[in-house]
Amino acid sequence: DDMMSSQVADEILDSEAVLIRLQNIRLRCRMLKGRMHDILEMAWFERGQVRLNEGTYNVYSILDGIDGVVSSQADQKKQRLLMRSTQVQHAQVTCDKLRLSQALLNVVQNAVKFTQKDGEIRVTLTELKQERKGYGVYEFRVKDNGIGMEAGFLERLYEPFQTGGNSPECGAGLGLSITKSIVDLMGGTIEVETTLQRGTEFSLRFSFKLPDQAADPKEEAKRKREAAANPSFAGQRILAVENPKFNAVPIADILRDYKLSVTSAQNGAEALEKLAASAGQPYQMVFMDVRLPETDGYETAKKIRTLTNPDLAGVPVIMMTFDTMEDNRQSAFEARVNGHLSKPVDRELLIEILNSFLEQN
Predict the structure, then answer these.
(1) Taking the CB of residue 12, how many other CB atoms lie within 10 A of it?
(2) Helix, strand or coil, per DSSP, at residue 1
(3) pTM of this prediction?
(4) What region does 118 belong to: left with phi over 0, alpha with psi -120 to 50, or beta?
(5) What residues contact 37, with CB distance under 8 A and at least 6 apart?
(6) Which among 72, 240, 262, 290 is placed 20 to 30 Å from 56, CA to CA?
(7) Bridge partners for 207 per DSSP
(8) CB 119 within 8 A of CB 138
(9) Rounded distance, CA 45 to CA 180, Å?
(10) What is the rounded end-to-end Cα distance, in angstroms, of the chain?
(11) pLDDT at residue 172 is higher than 50
(12) 119 near 108, Cβ under 8 Å?
């Protein structure tokens, strides 16, 4: 920090002032390092590069870990941090402890950050009734009596770079975005209730396999069939390039049924522009009509392959054709096309294609 370094030089004869400045510099460096880590984490989630590393853990140890990290922060603000559990019958679960702790820690630290001095934060773990044999449902509630949130802010709560204020302590606004990504990856849910100036309560709910209980094979087979019929690729990003003249049922609408985040383009130039703008958050796939105005789909795909950013140039491209004559093998080879899909879209074939390039969650 140039300004603080200059101040240290000016105060070199005052050892106490120098110590204070150095402590501030170290604090700001730690804050900057934390923000850079969050930005990298968010990029990994957006690229679909995060995978769960599951093991057998005790759910109480997760609460203990959070308490160990946050208690000192709460003590500095003279807050009451209360940890409790109710109705927990199965303490041993199969989960990614690191990611679960990270998701919960982001929420609890936010509660401490946005709760006034002498406030109170309650963290409660409850095991809920579960009908699925071999699994347990666990709910973590984080309730504070802090500043709360306005209703309008809730609409963008989990979007990156949204903060509850302008002070440096508010951070980069990525903590809840990362938490939401972890919750989605673990197949859980997150809900929030808040009242301005009265407090906020987050509820995170997960279904974890119980290592000491066997699942019902028939029930698991049924769930797999249902998942195949109703897949979810929540949060993964797709660019759909479709000619508006030939879109009775746009594939963009079909992809959204599977919880994909879809951006639409209507021609090759717009597609290249949106790809270039996505460098920080690359698309996982591109679906593109062969029939496009001005430059056709194959030529546009060739231009994609010449982009200097390898994350953009290597994106899987699926060409969408309206008849067999449009399936040009030579052009597809030259553009390194990854597959073809006929319109109107066969959903079973579409799911097979999505499963080839994306991870269900």
Answers:
(1) 9
(2) coil
(3) 0.56
(4) left
(5) none
(6) 72
(7) 137
(8) no
(9) 10
(10) 42
(11) no
(12) no
